[in-house]
Amino acid sequence: MAACGLDFGTSNTTLGHLSPGGPVLLPLEGTHLTVPSAIFFEPRQEPLVGRAATAAYVAGKPGRLMRGLKSVLGTPLIEEATPVGRERLRLRDIIARYIAIVKARAEEASGKSFDAVVHGRPVHFVDGDPEGDRRAEDTLREIAREVGFRDVVFQYEPIAAALDYERQVTREEIALIADIGGGTSDFSIVRLSPERRRQADRAADILANDGVRIGGTDFDRQLSLATVMPLLGFGSAMKRGDLAVPGAYYHDLATWSAINRLYDGRTLREIDDVLRDCARPDLVGRLRTAVEEERGHALAGTVEAAKIAASETGAASIDLGPIERGLAASLDRTGLAVKTDGLSRAVAARIGKCLIQAGLPAERIDALFLTGGSTGLPHLRAALAECLPEARIVAGDTFGSVGLGLTVAAEVFEGRVRADA
């Protein structure tokens, strides 16, 4: 058998295998070790994934782009069908097509046929819903088997990141692992050492696990609602009474996984009714343009890019030219922090819950290991570090630590299956 580690993320995906030199990630799109978790369906063509999917959408090719599909796992939306050309496909089937393409590319790159997988999963797919959590894992397991994995096991993503970090640890320590991804923020407190790394059963070393369904796409959504959607009429008034323009359209347009729900004739007819009765048809008309021309993913991508640019350089412009020539919004690092302060504090609060679960004071944590794309937000990093003022801050591979750790776990899994055979 050949086992691999698969990190199917809300924003990006990696897949690793065991090379003669140890665990490595495989190239999944050209030379890139990560592939964006995006899929684009062109009429009468094989679907495109990753950067190619986004490029086809941006180029204006006819078809349907989908991103952020992991966030529907564990919810009724997973069985919802969406129009794809002349077909209607369930979202779970779209996820299966995406993962099948990733698996095929990894097998081509490695020269192996993978029949076993250690699949990453967040601590909670759905907050406060154990049944939804179970359904989400069951769905991913079914999908993995449908695409050709005979043996499927799961590992919490922050534990996987801990296994990757442990490869550089030279003495025993207690680390808090923070994996802040596109859809969830997950935390584990783990006892690590070179000696413990050689043990097959690490259950006693896991001191706490917790997580919350807040990730980078939620920061995107909050920024969009605060900076972009008011320019499209969000929060504006209707002509009569004290009612505002219905907000549901704007919330869907700002949410990666919900954007495609707007693209039907019924929604456009509803927006036309709103246009007739709203006080600012100049603004709501922009909403109609965004929906009619299916520019929702372009808007979301522009907001995401501005978030990253403001984090890295201090300021960014959000170009809304696809909606109206010359239209733009501005964003700086301070505004980013203010507009998403509640989210960053909600994420950081999980550290306190982990410490209580582990029965440890903050000063007992030796290292705070950070991985996941959203750890690039300066105010979020500061909020996390503030909870553990004496801990050493260690930056992991932003997009690769979880996948590498899952591959470390795959080595153990493969050895166990061989021993049982």
TrEMBL record:
<keyword id="KW-0547">Nucleotide-binding</keyword>
<dbReference type="InterPro" id="IPR018181">
    <property type="entry name" value="Heat_shock_70_CS"/>
</dbReference>
<dbReference type="InterPro" id="IPR056546">
    <property type="entry name" value="MreB_MamK-like"/>
</dbReference>
<keyword id="KW-0963">Cytoplasm</keyword>
<comment type="similarity">
    <text>Belongs to the heat shock protein 70 family.</text>
</comment>
<dbReference type="Pfam" id="PF06723">
    <property type="entry name" value="MreB_Mbl"/>
</dbReference>
<dbReference type="InterPro" id="IPR043129">
    <property type="entry name" value="ATPase_NBD"/>
</dbReference>
<protein>
    <submittedName>
        <fullName>Hsp70 family protein</fullName>
    </submittedName>
</protein>
<keyword id="KW-0067">ATP-binding</keyword>
<dbReference type="InterPro" id="IPR042054">
    <property type="entry name" value="YegD-like"/>
</dbReference>
